[in-house]
Each structure stands twice: as structure tokens, then as C-alpha cells.
Amino acid sequence: MRAIAVSEYGATPALTYLPRPEPGPGELLVKLIAAGLNPYDWRAADGMLKDTADATFPLVLGADGAGVVEDAGEGVTRLRHGEQVYGFFSDLERGRGSYAEYAVVPVDGPVARMPASMIYTRAAAVPTACAAALDVVERAGLGEGRTVLIAGATGGVGRAAVQLAARAGAEVVATARADADAAVRRLGAAHTVDHTAGDLGAQVLAACPAGLDALIVTAGDTARTTALARLLRPGGTCVSTVWTVDPDAMAEHGLHGVNVDGAPTAGTLERLADLIDAGELSVHIEREAPLEAAPDALARNRAGGARGKTVLRIL
Ligand SMILES: NC(=O)c1ccc[n+]([C@@H]2O[C@H](COP(=O)([O-])OP(=O)(O)OC[C@H]3O[C@@H](n4cnc5c(N)ncnc54)[C@H](OP(=O)(O)O)[C@@H]3O)[C@@H](O)[C@H]2O)c1
Fold first, then answer.
1. pTM of the entire structure?
2. CA triplet 47, 272, 123: central angle to 5 degrees?
3. Which residues form the pocket of ligand 1, taking CB atoms under 6 Å from any ligand atom?
4. The CATH classification of domain 129-259, taken from the options 3.40.50.1000, 3.30.70.100, 3.40.50.300, 3.40.50.720
5. What residue spans define the domains of the chain?
6. If one looks up domain 2-126+283-313 in CATH, what number appears?
7. Rg of the chain over all Cα atoms, to the nearest angstrom
8. 163-212, pLDDT tens digit by residue?
């Protein structure tokens, strides 16, 4: 099968021909039709997880994907042959990922029926970014009238978080350069602040003079997160997907701080499908490209400036 893989950590991703994986007991073989790109993909290829996972090379890149159940190992009763599924297919230890024609996933792993209202290229963009967004918005304790700043609002996680926070009734302040201002407002942001123009804290206070109840961080460094956390009211919560929170330091200031670390589960994917089918969550596809263009797409994402999701067509 065709796959995009690296021969070692740090190597340039390249088109590679590999044997089709076989599903073992309790596993599904999924014929992938589209893969969604996340920063996780190039980070994993760089070796971000090398201390926690013993990877097999060639390592197929990618995690998110959507396709059709092609085969099932012994004992599989859920998600039968021919079902349209989406999920998280990265398995570093077995060298497997979603930038390939086929992937294997445990049937009780992070795979679920696709949202009925979506086509494969859209569903493939959902798992990692939308699961993280659901997690951060829930942990931020948002509700009617609560104020939240979403730092990184123009990316895959941020766009989903803006929608979910606004649906929860929060007053959303979103970071956006001028070119993305209108897009995040359409998603539900009440205010926008430009993280590249002047004093960000002053812009936030101009929008929310009484300060923030919550801060969701999906971009930027620890210094930026710490500075923005000063805008939180006592008892406020800061949630980060980029490991920029020091929970102990936050606690000393009467704040709750948490770093989110988690891939989607089957349960999360089912909840996301329900939200999507109810029209409460959408994904914006910024770029679609064939599987063979993955190396270029990864380089673009690494360079920054994402304005939604990139999806690779496999079929
Ligand atoms: N912990 C987890 O479980 C988890 C799950 C999913 C994602 N993540 C991580 O969360 C991060 C975001 O993921 P993503 O998929 O949303 O990435 P993405 O689609 O590549 O988007 C990143 C966005 O952040 C913006 N940005 C960059 N620097 C910024 C800053 N200083 N202030 C405000 N915005 C800034 C970028 O726009 P500009 O460059 O134009 O500013 C871009 O729109 C990634 O690092 C990813 O690895 C973690």
C-alpha cells in the first residue's frame, strides 16, 4: 500500500510502499479514504514521544483518518464490514498511522461511526482537533455569561473551541490576525484581539474590562500563557493544549491550571458526531491535497499560519 513514512526520527517524510496491515483479534482493518493533518503528525515524526513510545520504522505518519471498515479480526462485533468510520489511527509502536491506504485499530480504541452529515474528507479533519476542543472547553467550566479568551483561535483546535465555548453561552474573545478576524466572529467570537499587533493584554481588557473567567491556550509559549493568566479573575481557569501551564504556580495565585493531554476516545468521537450532525460544530477545511503532497503539507503546517484544517485525499 502507499504510505507516507519516515525511516527514522527527524528524517524527511516520503512516499513508501508497505505491506497492507492484517487485523489481529479484536482489531478492525480500515480502508482510509482521507487523512487529517495535525501538528502532532510532524511532532511525532520529529521524535516528540520517543521517551514514551518505542517506535517501529518505517513509521507511517498521521493520526486522524476516515474510511470504510474492510475487515475485522476475531471477536469483533462492533463496527462491521462496510461501515463508514473515523478515528485516531496513530500507533507508533507498530509503525502505523493514517497517511496510508489501510490502518488497523482496536475495535474498542479511538474509532467510531462517521458523522452522518459529513463526507470522508471532512470527517478526517475532526478527531484530534475537535476532541481537544471539547476537552478544553469542558475543563474551562464555561457557561452563560462567562468570559473566555481563546489564544490560538484561528487553528484547528481553536476554531472548534470558539464554536463550543459560544454554544456554552460564554462571551468569547478570540485571537486572530486581521485576515482571520471575520471567520472567527462567524464561528461565535464576540470580540477579536490581534496577537501580532501591540499589547494583547490591553486589547483583551478593552473587550472584557472585568477580566476573564477562563483562558484557553492552543498556541504560544509559557511566558505568553503566564502573562495572559494575569487577566483571569480569582478562581479562574487556564487550560492549555501546548503544555504552557504550571498548575502549581497558578494555584499560588488562586487560579486553576491544567495541561490537556489526550487523544480522542470512541466515546468522544461519538459525542462529536452527534454535535456535528446537530449542526452545533463544524470544521473548516483550509486545504485539500493528495496523499503524495503530505511532505509539503506538513512543512506548511510547521511554518505556522494555519487557517483551518488540511486534509489529504488517499483514494
Ligand atoms: N494536548 C493535546 O491533547 C493536543 C490536542 C490537539 C492539539 N494539540 C496542540 O495544540 C496546538 C494547536 O493545534 P491546532 O491543530 O489548532 O494547530 P494549527 O491548526 O496549526 O493552528 C495553530 C494556530 O495558532 C495560531 N497562533 C500561532 N501562534 C499564536 C500566538 N502566539 N497567539 C495566538 N495564536 C497563535 C496560528 O495562526 P498564526 O500563525 O497566523 O498566528 C494558527 O492559526 C498544537 O501545538 C497541537 O500540537 C494538543
1. 0.98
2. 65
3. 38-40, 43, 128-129, 132, 151-152, 154-158, 175, 177, 195, 218-220, 224, 241-242, 260-262, 301, 304-306
4. 3.40.50.720
5. 2-126+283-313, 129-259
6. 3.90.180.10
7. 20
8. 999 999 999 999 999 999 999 999 999 999 999 999 999 999 999 999 99
